[in-house]
Amino acid sequence: MKRELIGVKIRQVAEDSPEVVDSKRKVKAQFASDVGSNRILGEHTIVQIDKLRDELKRKQSGDPGAVSSEDDIRERIQIQEGIFPDYRGMFARLARSDNPQHTAMMATLHQEFLDSSFAAKYSSEMQNYFSVTGDSVVGFSKEMPTQLVEVLFRAHIERYRQMEREFHERVALYKREFIDTVKEDIADGFVSMSEDLLERRVSDIDIEFNDTFQNYKGVYGQHAEHIIKVTPGMEGALERHIVFHELTHAISGTSFMHVTSEFSEKIRNTEEIHIAKAGLRFRTRRGKVFSFLNEAVTECLAALWSGIPADEMLYAVERQALSVLLEKGVARKSILDAYFENPEIDRSGKHPALRMPKTVALMREIRQNGGPGLLLNLERIFQE
Ligand SMILES: [Zn+2]
């Protein structure tokens, strides 16, 4: 029987509504769970193997609580260990900086993975299993033992946890500095939001450290679903700027919608929380629009607050599109007011224009100054 969507109910929900709070809790719990997220390469496997080996020891020492048979436990250990051979090639390749087949990702991983302490310990041993002939022929000279793969996984996990601890110490500082800087701009009217809301949104957001092995995107930071994820290995000033950029997203004007989808079979009704407005990005029936404008404004604010030099700023093309609006005479103040506007929640079906008047005023100003369709024409450039 075909499952058909028969109804969708959408309603606005407040930032502090039980629906949004619950959705945030779920996202954070999912991320925190080692087993669910597998966020460090090899961690899930190593955790399982340690548990099973422990169980085997208890069984062998006659613990009456250990129910499975020894053979059964050994078989489960073998299944987990089965992933090790898949990683032999990757580790061997990583060890060689002269590997002509290094992609951008491999080059990054090589740099990160084989930092001084790690390289000194394992690099020469890893190199034994990988050879480069001339400047293009690469091959495996002999197979890396799976015990070495396990050792490398464990070393990586331990090293990542150490880097993560240091990262969290820096993040606490970045958050404090960010709040203090933005407060100055609230005080002189440049940013229209309450100090209270600023503090709440910044403290509410979790900032986590990515394992590049698990989540390589070639980008530095990402703000999605109540968690900011940051890539390791950046210079201090850039890392601080990236965190500021993501925090700027987090404090921009936001609204949430609760979407219930009902299916014909009644097997399952799905409930989801979506972000309807994030700064100047909006969710419409045709998807998310004006991301380019949102990124441009976010990056300009973040650079202003982090103090990063102009030539190190990101989102160059997006910022050019923003310049077009400013050159046409759209006021900076109108853009910022719309960016920070939190639409009012209204159950009586008030027209959106009344719920976010500053955003509507900005759209009108862009139309009047740049002619009809300017924003959509710019949008089209970024969609190609
Ligand atoms: Zn961004």
Structural summary, described in words:
The protein is α+β, with helices and mostly antiparallel strands. The protein has two domains: about 5-35 and about 155-384, no CATH class; about 40-155, no CATH class. It has 16 helices and ten strands. The strands form three sheets. A five-stranded antiparallel β-sheet has the order 1-7-8-9-10. Helix 5 (about 85-95) packs across helix 7 (about 115-125). The protein is globular.
List keywords for this structure.
384 residues, alpha+beta, 2 domains, 5-stranded antiparallel β-sheet, 3-stranded mixed β-sheet, 16 helices, 10 strands, 14% strand, globular, binds zinc ion
Mean pLDDT: 84
User: Runs with pLDDT <50, length 5+?
Assistant: none
Helix and strand run: EHHHHHHHEEHHEEEHEEEEHHHHHH
Name the ligand types.
Answer: zinc ion
Question: Given the structure, what is the number of helices?
Answer: 16
Shape: globular
Radius of gyration: 26 Å
Summarize the amount of helix as a percent range.
55-70%
Termini separation comes to 38 Å
Note the beta-strand portion: 5-15%
Specify the structural class.
alpha+beta
Tally of strands: 10
- Biggest sheet strand order reads 1-7-8-9-10
